[in-house]
Amino acid sequence: MARKRKGDPVHGWICLDKPAGISSSSAVGRVRRALNAQKAGHGGTLDPLATGILPVALGEATKTAGYLMNARKSYRFTVRWGEARDTADAEGEITDTSDVRPDEADVRAALAGFVGTIDQVPPAYSALKVDGQRAYALARAGEIPDLEPRKVQVYRLELTSWVEGVEATFETDCGKGTYIRSLAVDIAEKLGTVAYVSALRRLSVGPFTEKNAIALDKLDALGHSAAAETHLLPVETPLDDIPAVAVADTEAARLRNGQAITQRVEARESRSSDMEALVLCKSGKGRPVALCKYEQGSIRPVRVFNLQND
After folding, report:
1. CATH number belonging to domain 73-205
2. Could you state, in order of their start, the residue ranges of all structural domains in the chain?
3. At a CB cut-off of 8 Å and minimum separation 6, what does 136 contact?
4. Are 57 and 36 in contact (CB under 8 A)?
5. Between 309 and 261, where is the model more confident?
6. pTM given for the model
7. CATH 3.40.50.720 is the classification of domain 12-71+209-229
8. Which end is more exposed in the chain, N or C (fewer Cβ atoms within 10 Å of the end residue's Cβ)?
9. Alpha-carbon distance 143 to 151, whole Å?
10. How remote is the C-alpha of 84 from its chain's centroid?
């Protein structure tokens, strides 16, 4: 007999405004306890020193978390000139210093070289796996991992604040796998100096933005209440760019049982991308039934949502 999960069957997303000083996993645990949810996960790690948007999935929403991996993200970060640190942020030990301080004009001129598809070496203190071990674990043990450069996408990079000779603040929109700490180090190197990230805030992850975010302390204060659940976003929130298809009750039942249905979806058959071939099937009342793959008139369930039946 399966062990019954503790908590309530809460399904949906919390757009959390994570405070500094706690890990993403700790923040997820506090959200789960605040709503007394049985299951929780997140849609993209934030460093303990970072603040900002941490999408937290509850219940069946955890099945859509993977679709945030490709979502565009926005950050605000402050770069402090003159010191290099092993972690490339304020937590690390100083490894190098420089008396060179770039001027504002040089910084603005350098930014164009970091927009578009760029090569980036991930920081040694990252969660990437090297021979089965996390890079940060190797780095902490004194074995600095040799990480290969990879291509990342930076859509926008702007200087938003300037303190002469001390620091600069930037905002960026970027794609999957972009490390802000590496971006800061590379900008400094281009300018002939060293630097580290002294402050980092994530402004958005796909459809999750500061406009629909709630602070962790506020969520804690609301506790297991109806007011807390008003901040719960739909299970399908990360799927906002995937077409939705309404299905009849009989078809919904087939999909929930893992069976394919036959239905034509306009202008989908000619597309070859896996993401472009996905459709979200909903019941007549708008409840998500399954995330499906559409191929030549057949809709096959990929992820079935075990939500209360209509």
Report:
1. 3.30.2350.10
2. 12-71+209-229, 73-205, 242-304
3. 124, 125, 126, 127
4. no
5. 261
6. 0.89
7. no
8. N
9. 24
10. 26
Q: Catalytic: which of 47, 86, 89, 186? A: 47
Is 73-205's fold the same as 242-304's? no
Secondary structure E strands in 51-175: 51-58, 73-81, 83-85, 94-97, 116-120, 129-130, 133-134, 150-163, 167-174
Supply angle C-alpha 236, 239, 244, rounded to 5. Answer: 85
pLDDT tens figures, 256-288: 999 999 876 654 443 444 555 789 999 888 899
* Alpha helices per DSSP H over the chain: 24-34, 104-111, 135-140, 180-190, 216-222, 226-229, 249-256
Assess whether 47 carries a catalytic annotation: yes
> What does the pLDDT look like over 26-85, one tens digit per residue?
999 999 999 999 999 988 889 899 999 999 999 999 999 988 888 999 999 999 999 999
- Rg of the chain over Cα atoms, rounded to whole angstroms, equals 22
Domain 242-304 annotated CATH 1.25.40.70: no
Look at the chain and count its residues. 310
